[in-house]
Request: fold
Amino acid sequence: MNITTEALTKVYRGGRRALDAVDLHIDSGTVGLLGANGAGKTTLLRILTGVLRPTSGRVLVAGHDLSTSAGLTAAKRTLGYLPQELSLYPDLTAREFLDYIGVLKGVHDKRDRRRQVDDRLAEVGLEDRAAERLAGFSGGMRRRVGIAQALMGDPTVLIVDEPTTGLDPHERMRFRALLAGLGGGRTVLLSTHILDDVAQTCPEVAVLASGRLVFHDTTTALVGQAAGYTYVVRSDGPAGGPPPGAQVVSAVSTAGEAEYRVVTATPPGGARPVEPSLEDGYAALLAADSALHHTHHTRTLRNEVADT
Reply:
C-alpha cells in the first residue's frame, strides 16, 4: 500500500473531532477524495504530508511510518504535494522557481535538476514560458506550475488539494487531462468538491463524512449507489417546488415549468426514471449515511436516557 491509515483520529482543541478512526488503504493509480466542507479532507491531507500530527492512529506513506522522524523524512522524499493555496515567488521565472524547489527536495546534482526542470515544464505544457516571471502567469498557468513543483524529485506519491477551483472551463479541461496522465506508476490522491473532476480523472473514490470514511470503492460503484433511485420530476411553473422527502440533485426552471432531478426510494407520480450520474450516487450515499448516523445517534440518546 502506498498510502495506509489505521484508526486515524484527529481531535482539535475544544473536542472537535475532524477525523474519526479512518482506515484507508490506497495502492497505485488516481483516487478521488470527496466530502462536504468540514468533512475532514484538508485535515487528512495535512496529516499525510506531515504538516499536522494525528491525535492517534497510524500513517504509512510509501511504506514509511510518519510517527517517526526517520519515517517522516523518508516519506517526504517520495511525496509531491500541491496545496489548495500555493505561494509562488512572483519575481522568479518558472525555470528558476522549479530549480529552487528541486534544491529544497534534495536534487543536488545540477545536471539532474536541470533535466527534471525541463521535463516537468514540458509535462505541464509550459516549456515555451520557462523564462517568463511567475507574476505574469494566469491562474491556470500557476496551477500547472504547482503540479510541476510537486513532481520535482520524481515522487511516487502525489497529493493534490482542490486543483481546479477558480479555473475557467478551458483551463479546467486542460488541467483534468494533465491529472489523468499522472497516475501511471504513481499514487495520486486528488481532493476536490468538484464531482466532474473525479468523474473525468479518477477510477477510484473515497468519501469522508463528518470525519468518517463512509465509502471507498470504484467510481462506478459510487454511481451505482443511486441505481434505481434516480428520477426526473416536472412541476407546473417554477414555484411548484420539488417533491417532498426527495433528495434534490439539480433543478432547471423555465417560464412554464421546473424540472427536478431527485434521488428517492419513493418516486412521486409522474416521475421518470433515469440513469444515475456520479452526482446522484454521491447524493444517495450521503443521504443514506446521514439517515443511518441520525438513527444511531437517536438510539444512543434513548439508551442514555433509559440508563438515568
